[in-house]
Amino acid sequence: MIRTLRKKFIAIAMLSLLGTMTVLCATIGIGNYYVAASRADKAIDILYQNGGEFPVPDGNASPSAHTGFQVTPETPFETRYFIVRLTAEDAVSAVDLEHIAALDRQTVVSTIEQIVSKGTDKGYVGQYRFGRFENESGGYTLIVIDCFMQLQSAYAVFRVMAAVFVLCAGIVFLLLLVLSKRATRPFAENWERQRQFVTDASHELKTPLAILSADLGLIEETEENRLWLESGQEQIQRMDSLIKNLVELARSEEALPPSAVAAVPFSELAEGCIEISSPCRVCRKRTDGGDLPWSVRQRRAGRYLPPADDSAGQCREIL
């Protein structure tokens, strides 16, 4: 039982840790990816509002100010992008490749076809983030930014978090294996004391039961009416069986399986109680008590016994 308790303790602790770390890592990873995408969208909006060029920075940019996109003197040189203008029929009318050197016109045409096939106003095509803007004169403009560095950083964060996740889970699992025994030690000690108590109590109870059984055996040799003696022997055997069952349950290491549990009809229990109390009912019917042993007559003298026709009293005594 203690071994099962340790296993459940480790399993619950590991599931709690894994669930918490999964939510934490997923939140950080998704948040980092969202920040990278929102910064690229902000840069695309700035380019569209300024005719395809970054504005002159105001000099107040600070890395710790906020997580949004900020224009610095180096932004025009760090940001790689191209601009494509298309007609309402998706025909290319103009292409500006001045701010990007890694793409030729054939690659640009292939990228534009993928963007047009998506049918969305913003999104990713490979390592490129695009934004679509409708023109007042008809047609629309596509601004595409190279987000290779941002995506590489986001994926690097994912990999680092996965490594930290596995490392922390392994360390905590090893610690639980070592410390779970100490954590469950009080339960093990209490369980052992309980088992010892039941065992000692069973030995203490078996001794008087054995003496009573021996005394009843001697009385049976001289007593003619053995009804109460047989009932006493049955009760002693019943108590002895009950003690044995308690000891067996106390020594059991595991809980009873569901297959070992069976329904017991209430009628059988009631019949057993009636059989157990049958000598008492017979004793109540004998109003004179002349044929009863002297000790029984003495006990009846100082005790109220309901009459034989008192059904309510008999039911109360049986229940």
Description:
By secondary structure, the protein is α+β, with helices and mostly antiparallel strands. It is 62% helix and 9% strand. A 5-stranded antiparallel beta sheet has the order 2-1-5-4-3. Strand 1 (81-86) and strand 2 form a beta hairpin. Helix 1 packs antiparallel against helix 4 and helix 5 runs antiparallel to helix 6 (227-251). The radius of gyration is 44 Å and the shape is rod-shaped. The chain starts with a helix and ends with a helix. Residues 284-292, 294-300, 303-309 and 314-319 have low confidence and may be disordered.
Low-confidence stretches: 284-292, 294-300, 303-309, 314-319
Spell out the helices and strands N to C.
HHEEHEEEHHHHHHH
Radius of gyration: 44 Å
Mean pLDDT: 77
Discrete helix count: 10
Structural class: alpha+beta
